[in-house]
Amino acid sequence: MEFKGRVLEHPKGTWTIYPSLCKGCGLCIEKCPTKAITWSEVLGVYGTPSVESNNKCIACGICQMVCPDCAIYVEKKK
Ligand code: SF4
Ligand code: SF4
User: How far is CA 48 from CA 20, 76, 77, in A?
Assistant: First the structure.
């Protein structure tokens, strides 16, 4: 099985969501300190909305840490 990521470029970093891993639990939305994550029209593994981030993202990596399904990958810009 191939996991295709949606790569979103923000001023502070590159934020990738793997919708095929996201089960839509909303934990990342809850824990993001800058409220940069919202529900997406792209569906996740169970046909529920996955998530996406906006340019309020500071690339802190908390969403990546809290996601139980490793559906988010964050890379801070140098
Ligand atoms: S990296 Fe930090 S600021 Fe960016 S979306 Fe994740 S929790 Fe929010
Ligand atoms: S924490 Fe992970 S599984 Fe839950 S909504 Fe966010 S990306 Fe999806």
Answer: 11, 28, 31
